[in-house]
């Protein structure tokens, strides 16, 4: 299998962005024409199965928890997309989580020690946490997740015989993002695709307001020089063809869109900025880094009748669905 160590260091950055998501239940507008591409998933390429148990590093405590693969996938899907999502979206999420696990195992960093993945790279909810969060719906929700995971537990996404870095996020701006626009490295299966139903998500638009004093403190901490009229602190901007901010001059210094997102705790790098009445206001579209599978989009596709493999084919171009060895 081809070695992808050149991109493994992007994994930690990639997954700071996988938030817990409450997927949209709005009316779907996604075209189901991707179903015609399903044949690209017919190739069954055996890939190595992971160890019987999965070792998860807690970044906070440094402890390592060991779970069966089945339990790990149930717990991860419970955290990442949740049991209220459509069944086919849950299955797609499970395959993405499994693929990311295998990718991480193949490209381990020293920080993982003897663990396979960290709870920062991929969140999970323990069974006790599920019971506490779901209350009297626990049994029904748990049963739904178990049934979905059991149907796809041995499925993995691959590119050129290797499990892919199957990143995902909450809501796009209407299009997913090219990997190079976020992490500076082109990845053949992480390219921009349309995801129009995301615009119907309740998490599609958000805003962040800051006083002049607050904005100045953040900008100067990051090397900008904020003097004179605050309106003039906002300079030239450039967008990527996906609609995200490529660069923006603030206080005379050029920042990338992802840098500004981090600095001001924005939900995504698709934003506009204005200054009025002593306040800076960011208007933001989408939620997450935007690379890979949109969870809101996956749920909308499932509602419109697309199956999990069609969802995966749409969001991870050039990948194939493989079956792990028994």
Tell me what the structure shows:
This protein has 2 domains: 231 residues, no CATH class; 81 residues, no CATH class. Strands 2-1-3 form a 3-stranded mixed β-sheet. Helix 3 packs across helix 4 and helix 5 crosses helix 6. The chain has 11 helices and 14 strands. It starts with a helix and ends with a strand. The protein is of the alpha+beta class and 326 residues long.
Shape: elongated
Low-pLDDT residue intervals, each spanning 5 or more residues: 1-46
Report the average pLDDT across residues. Answer: 87
Would you tell me the structural class of the helices and strands?
alpha+beta
Distance between the termini: 19 Å
Strand order of the largest sheet: 2-1-3
Sheet bearing the most strands, described?
Answer: 3 strands, mixed
> How many beta-strand segments?
14
Write the layout of secondary structure elements.
Elements: H1 5-8, H2 10-14, E1 53-57, E2 64-68, H3 69-80, H4 87-106, E3 117-118, H5 127-134, H6 138-152, E4 155-159, E5 162-163, E6 168-169, H7 179-183, E7 205-211, H8 212-221, E8 234-239, E9 245-250, E10 253-256, H9 257-263, E11 271-276, E12 279-285, E13 293-294, H10 295-303, H11 308-315, E14 320-323
Parallel strand pairs: 1-3, 6-13
Antiparallel strand pairs: 1-2, 4-5, 4-14, 7-12, 8-9, 9-10, 11-12
